[in-house]
Task: inverse folding
């Protein structure tokens, strides 16, 4: 695959960093691709603006930063307003439709994923909203194989939370299939 | 389908974690630190891993205590390390002078962030190039500093820091930055048998014949360092010493000590010159960068090359002593050199200018920090200086 840039942005505590790390880990450790993950965050432990960037490429990665993401995963209005302009033409935007109001953007496909609500409704835990939206991203983009992602999640999330994380991930895949079916 | 074969000894981890693993692989078993972003992940990894390998990790009351205790551990025969970032490095510098003067082998990691002072704590900067070399007062120093640009190098070069600290009997810096420290990439940890590790060299003569400091043969390296408690009567203090380690105020003795400390490095530049050179053979223009800035710089070089513009690249890996010779050679070949770096002072560019001795024009592309330059910034500036605008 060619260089693909993915940006996750929202608030600290939403697990976007973990979602990015899962992608990078699956790509490098399980799929023998190259990946680099960078992040920017404030000094707050929770609630501040948080951003996680992932580059995946079959070729070695020279520059690790994300400038114009191919995929933008957005979980807060603040992040959307600040970062939407960076998205590459024909890029994909996955946004939590209960947290973000989007603008009309003719050259970008924007996909509403009610990740936080789905996490609460399906497993009763808001904390796995990251896995819901990650499931939708993987189902849609096929950047990485879904079974490979699931192995990576099982191996790396805190012990005892494997099942709810995996359930949320599958829920996100389903959600995308439903949305894509309607469109 | 799972491709398990790519997972052996491979980890998707931060540069900071790779530094901790590199230290463990090098034999570091004493660590003292005080938390600071963006170096804390090194301390956290060490704290988690040291119980598994039998190391001692302590969070002390401040930076001064942590570097002095690392000096103490070194005299006691342990491979030791402390880590910090700019504001903490400032505080450690007093202890560092003590380490330089007493020729203590240990490693200090500086994960640079945007300064001055506390600056932007969680974001990148490159403001400490001179701090690590000249920050400790009094001059006459033997500092060596090595700078990685990716996660694998963070591991490999940390091992080199320990090895050089043993060979040269001096504190050695790993001069890295927040971007390298916090980026996650693939780390391959080789089998321990494949790693070259330099052990502490021990005296082969009895205590009565042993001189603690080889001041009569200035510039000597690969010199033994006995452990405290082995009967060698180790004298370590902040004062100028004689070859036996006793305090002295004699002008002659002082100059002997100062000469030895400096010549330890300057007499052995062949062992302390390490750069990465790319496409310099036919280059008409050059870019020089270190640490995190090397990667956008190389990307800019690739873009220019794709357009037929003959651009080459050089990166100091061992950055102190400064690689004057390779840079002079490069300056003799190219017309103009661009130096992107994350400070507005022009630290790296000033050194490049000095090393180039007027053979090429040197241009500084600065930024206060917080973000690395993007490849396009470096490329645009390169085009601007090529066109002479």
Result:
């Amino acid at each position: 695959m060619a260089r693909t840039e993915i940006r996750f942005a929202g608030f600290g505590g939403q697990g976007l960093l973990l979602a990015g790390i899962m992608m990078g880990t699956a790509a490098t450790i399980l799929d023998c691709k190259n990946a680099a993950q960078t992040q920017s965050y404030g000094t707050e432990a929770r609630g501040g603006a948080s951003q996680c960037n992932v580059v995946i490429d079959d070729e070695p990665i020279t520059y690790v930063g994300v400038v114009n993401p191919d995929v933008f995963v957005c979980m807060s209005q603040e992040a959307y307003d600040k970062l939407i302009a960076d998205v590459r033409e024909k890029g994909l935007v996955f946004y939590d439709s209960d947290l973000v109001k989007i603008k009309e953007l003719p050259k970008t496909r924007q996909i509403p994923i009610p990740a936080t609500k789905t996490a609460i409704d399906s497993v009763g835990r808001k904390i796995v909203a990251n896995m819901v939206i990650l499931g939708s991203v993987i189902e849609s983009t096929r950047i990485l194989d879904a079974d490979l992602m699931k192995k990576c999640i099982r191996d790396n999330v805190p012990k005892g939370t494997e099942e709810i994380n995996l359930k949320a991930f599958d829920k996100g895949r389903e959600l995308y299939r439903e949305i894509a079916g309607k469109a | 389908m799972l491709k398990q074969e790519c997972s052996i000894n491979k980890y998707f981890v931060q540069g900071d974690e790779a530094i901790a693993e590199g230290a463990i692989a090098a034999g570091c078993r004493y660590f003292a630190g005080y938390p600071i972003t963006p170096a804390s992940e090194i301390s956290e990894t060490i704290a988690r891993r040291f119980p598994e390998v039998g190391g001692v990790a302590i969070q002390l009351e401040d930076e001064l205590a942590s570097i002095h205790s690392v000096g103490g551990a070194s005299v006691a025969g342990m491979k030791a390390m402390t880590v910090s970032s700019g504001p903490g490095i400032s505080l450690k510098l007093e202890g560092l002078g003590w380490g330089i003067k007493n020729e203590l082998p240990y490693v200090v990691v500086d994960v640079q962030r945007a300064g001055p002072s506390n600056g932007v704590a969680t974001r990148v900067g490159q403001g400490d190039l001179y701090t690590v070399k000249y920050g400790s007062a009094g001059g006459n120093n033997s500092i060596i500093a090595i700078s990685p640009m990716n996660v694998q190098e963070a591991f490999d070069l940390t091992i080199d820091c320990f090895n050089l600290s043993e060979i040269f009997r001096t504190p050695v810096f790993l001069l890295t930055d927040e971007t390298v420290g916090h980026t996650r990439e693939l780390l391959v940890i080789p089998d321990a048998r494949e790693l070259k590790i330099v052990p502490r060299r021990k005296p082969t003569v009895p205590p009565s014949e042993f001189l603690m400091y080889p001041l009569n043969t200035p510039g000597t390296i690969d010199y033994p360092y006995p452990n405290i408690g082995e009967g060698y009567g180790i004298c370590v203090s902040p004062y100028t010493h004689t070859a036996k380690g006793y305090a002295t105020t004699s002008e002659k003795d002082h100059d002997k000590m100062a000469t030895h400390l400096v010549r330890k490095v300057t007499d052995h530049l062949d062992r302390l010159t390490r750069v990465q050179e790319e496409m310099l053979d036919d280059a008409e223009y050059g870019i020089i960068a270190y640490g995190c800035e090397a990667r956008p710089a190389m990307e800019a070089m690739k873009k220019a090359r794709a357009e037929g513009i003959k651009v080459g690249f050089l990166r100091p890996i061992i950055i102190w002593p400064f690689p004057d010779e390779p840079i002079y050679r490069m300056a003799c070949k190219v017309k103009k050199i661009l130096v992107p770096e994350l400070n507005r002072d022009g630290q790296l560019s000033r050194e490049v200018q000095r090393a180039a001795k007027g053979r090429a024009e040197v241009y500084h592309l600065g930024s206060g920090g917080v973000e690395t330059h993007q490849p396009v910034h470096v490329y645009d500036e390169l085009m601007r200086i090529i066109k002479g605008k």
